[in-house]
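Reposting from the mailing list since nobody answered there.

I have sequence plus structure tokens for a pair of proteins and want to know whether others read the tokens the same way I do. The first protein:
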Amino acid sequence: MLLRIQVGEAINARAIFSATLLVLFLSLDYFATDFFSRGNVAAEGNAISALWWQLAGPLRHLDIIIEIGGAFVLAFIIRQRSEFLTLWWLNGLAFGHLMGFLSWLPYGILDLFYRITPNDQVLTIALSGTGVLLGLPLAFLQIALARRKLNLGRRAL
């Protein structure tokens, strides 16, 4: 019974929105990586992803499920302390994967990152860090809108 109550409190529209962004952007990033690398694991700049691809081989697509599951478990654990941190965690991961997806597009969207980073590992850190920074204002906005809605609801009573 206690677990059921905690799960119900942890899942709300804000968390569902952030989780949906994560699933969408992670999937885009993953399939863009798979498509644009044409199976060449050396084209992947993220060392952990490249190692996973080598180890998992044709089962590498399970990474989407594993990563989403791990992110959701950690989000649930973080939610026990702070909804804001949970939203920042999910949004940061989502935007990090959006940056990863954009890095594969051939339109020069991220040329700035390519100019300032000396190698793929630094580029991976720069893209992930940018994702975390982009997730922060969205988490603030989500919390601010939730508080505003709560205040409007109190006024109606």
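The second protein, same order (residues first, tokens after):
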Amino acid sequence: MIDVPNNSNVSVNVSVNSTYRKWDTVPTVTRPYEFILNSIPWIYRLINKVYTLDNVYWLTDLKDYLKIAREAIDLDHNWLPNRFDCDDFSAVLYCYARYEYGINGIGRVNDFVSRHSYNVCVTKDGGFYIIEPQEAVAYTLQSRSKKLYSLMFAIITF
């Protein structure tokens, strides 16, 4: 417990949960941040800003990434124009995978050409996929809609 005083001199107890409920329930491998960067085709690294914020990444396979995406959707968020829309759904999936599973191989994309936010993931074997967080579906670079997922002049954060 942490004792946090507020402005009225009344202390508030805040519990800090140091164990993550679903960590180690999904098979993962660890890779250095260079593995993330090298899994993104060079042309997309060239025309986008790609940031890796960790030194080590816990990765899983596409099936488990989609399972996590379905769970994040089930958190019962409703799409609301300009209040809870694509950028919020991508933020929920990004954070949910880290907090619940300890998996940081899902990145957030803010795509300024498509005017859309979504996620990408790098799999254990170095595969690179686009994940639509509002539907929990994945696309390859070849199968994606270039109108919705241009990956042109985007900011990608892992």
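Reply #1 (J.P.):
I read it the same way you do. Helices lie at 33-39, 42-47, 62-73, 86-101.
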